[in-house]
Amino acid sequence: MNSTDGVVRNGLPGRGLVSQGLVSQGRDFLAIPGPTVVPDQVLSAMHRPAIDIYTGSLVAVTDSCLAALKSVFKTGGDVYMYAANGHGAWEAALSNVLSRGDEILVLQSGLFATTWGESGALQGLRAQVVAGDWNQPVNYEKAEEALRSDKNHNIKALLAVQIDTASGVVNDVPRLRRLLDDTNHPALLMIDCIASLGTMPFLMDEWRVDVAVAGSQKGLMMPPGLSFVATNAKGKAAHQNANLRTHYWDWTFRDGPEHYMKYCGTPPEHLMFGLKCALDMLLEEGLDAAFMRHQLLADAVRSAVSAWGGNGLMSLNIQDPSARANSVTTVVLADGMAPEVLLDWCEVNAAVKLGITIGDLHGKGFRIGHMGYVNAPMILGVLGVIESALYANDWEFASSGVAAATEQLGSALKSI
Ligand SMILES: Cc1ncc(COP(=O)(O)O)c(C=O)c1O
Q1: Which of 190, 198, 319, 375 falls between 20 and 30 A from 81, CA-CA?
Q2: Residues 220-241 pLDDT 10s
Q3: Residues of the chain below pLDDT 70
Q4: Quick one: 302 and 349 in the same domain?
Q5: What pLDDT does 302 receive?
Q6: Measured from the CB, is residue 161 less than 6 Å from ligand 1?
Q7: DSSP characters for 293-304?
């Protein structure tokens, strides 16, 4: 079957006729870092008629989701659910605890803390940004300097992400807590764990995070459309004086006695049915087991990239191995290599959709999402498809990433 003339031989089409998509029939795999794969169980849970929004089983669904979210955030504080994406949760978080003109200290480590800060500026806050590199965690030293020099405590909140989905970095949240403690700074600690919750430890109460935001569409295995804000007593105290509060986001209204007030209107019922199922699945697996699964699969991905890139073809964007996220890997290609060649090949030929790089890294590489409902065959499959793309496009790589990943995973599992 070496035909390149478009003629069907032995029942199979020649290359000229159908050179693309020959191995794509089957389940598509979305390997972008969110939204992520939604389990069939979750999809089925949403496939049901609408029900009453004031009484009955929906009330129990709400209670169950709130209790489960507290377990996932590891908090005894309050959790609020919004029919919104992550941008909505950002706005909800800021508007509930801050007032017009308040200063926020934004720690950059890629794209998302910065855009959260920009969103705050549009709400009327004054954002001071501690610049960071796109291949490293936040600049802890510069953050400490900014806190120490803020003698009058004008900074009311420190904003950072736990995992930056653009750069693939993980920031050390307990260290941020220590920065505030060591400088005796009373600012609220506000953390975006949109790309980390459910994939790695997040200990809200133990770390004394005052406000945490998350979204449904990544580690929580749900479609986009729901987001969550968790807060503690300090966040609730700040809420009392916050003048950025608006009706829809307002925690006080949502603390009201009626069920519909928890949603400030009609609950997104079907998303709630799905969320209950997804959280039940996560807690049934066990958070520690889910974190370990993410660690093992992320290690496999990193081994593959390092093997392919041994000749300089590609590299892991985050330099420090301990600062690499377990939910997403950002890969930078050598100068002159066009990522769209690889991305298009994977999508057209093998139904695998990889993530593009964004922000400062736009056009420089690709991202592999490995969070949420993913297991070994899914991730090893993605790596196999990428390696096939390297062969198909004559991109010379140092050694087999698939071999490195399977060896990494097999050895790790043997030693557990
Ligand atoms: C870490 C992080 N924060 C915030 C957002 C924004 O969330 P959304 O796109 O749902 O508004 C994203 C989206 O990818 C993200 O990865």
Answers
A1: 375
A2: 999 999 999 999 999 999 999 9
A3: 1-19
A4: yes
A5: 98
A6: yes
A7: HHHHHHHHHHHH
**Which one of 194, 197, 228, 229 would you pick to mutate in the ligand 1 pocket, going by the greatest count of ligand atoms within 8 A of its CB?**
194
pLDDT of residue 19: 55
Q: Do 218 and 345 have their domain in common?
A: no
Q: Is the C-beta atom of 84 inside 6 A of ligand 1?
A: no
User: Are 300 and 382 spatial neighbours (Cβ–Cβ below 8 Å)?
Assistant: no
Q: Are 404 and 304 in contact (CB under 8 A)?
A: yes
Q: Is residue 3 part of a domain?
A: no
Range of the domain at 118: 51-283
The answer to whether residue 295 sits within a structural domain is yes
Query: 165 CA distance to ligand 1 centroid (A)?
Result: 8
Q: Is the CB of 137 under 6 A from ligand 1?
A: no
- Both 256 and 303 in a single domain? no
pTM: 0.95
**Which domain-ending residue is among 245, 260, 283?**
283
Beta bridge partners of 107: 130
Q: Is the CB of 215 under 6 A from ligand 1?
A: yes
Distance 295 CA to ligand 1 centre (A): 21
Reported as a single tens digit per residue, the pLDDT across 276-310 is 999 999 999 999 999 999 999 999 999 999 999 99
- By DSSP bridging, strand 126-130 and strand 103-107 are parallel
Does residue 45 fall inside a structural domain? no
Tokens, residue 50: 């609408």
How many independent structural domains does the chain possess? 2
By most ligand atoms within 8 Å of CB, the mutation choice from 114, 162, 165, 213 for ligand 1 is: 165
Whole-angstrom Cα distance, residue 222 to residue 238?
31
| Residue 308, phi then psi, degrees to nearest 5 | -60, -40
> End of a domain among 248, 283, 318?
283
CA of 358 relative to ligand 1 center, distance in Å: 12
In a shared domain, residues 301 and 275: no
Ligand 1, atom 6: closest residue by C-alpha: 86
CATH number, position 57: 3.40.640.10
Residue type (1 letter), 25: Q
Question: Both 275 and 305 in a single domain?
Answer: no
Q: Does the CB atom of residue 34 touch ligand 1 within 6 A?
A: yes
Residue 148 corresponds to which tokens in the numbers above? 């120490």
